[in-house]
Design a protein that fits this description.
single chain, alpha+beta, 4 strands
């Protein structure tokens, strides 16, 4: 998973769009862009989304909980076992549940 600010994303990937970054890398990592206001834009497991600042209790706790979820349930990242470069799509309901659970921590 890649986590960065819009400025860092622009410097490293010439884009601050999570989908563009996700698609440009052969491993198809999850990409999370954190805004100055605390908002989050992401592309994880072939799914896109955003979370506004008011949805997150605390950004650092959110990321810790999210990484724990992915460690416990790697299928949330969309990897179907076909190897690097596959763009498998994660189950949207389970991914949403993991994101909301992490945001409430």
């Amino acid at each position: 998973m890649i986590r960065c600010t819009p400025e860092e994303a622009d410097q490293f990937f010439s884009s601050d769009d999570p989908l563009t970054i996700h698609g440009s890398l052969s491993q198809r990592p999850g990409v999370v862009i954190t805004g100055i206001d605390g908002s989050v834009r992401w592309c994880i497991g072939g799914r896109l989304g955003t979370m506004e600042t008011r949805m997150l209790n605390e950004q650092e706790s959110f990321f810790s909980a999210l990484i724990e979820s992915f460690a416990e349930k790697p299928e949330l990242l969309g990897n179907t076992g076909e190897g690097p470069g596959t763009d498998a799509v994660a189950d949207s309901d389970r991914l949403k549940d993991a994101l909301l659970s992490a945001a409430s921590k």
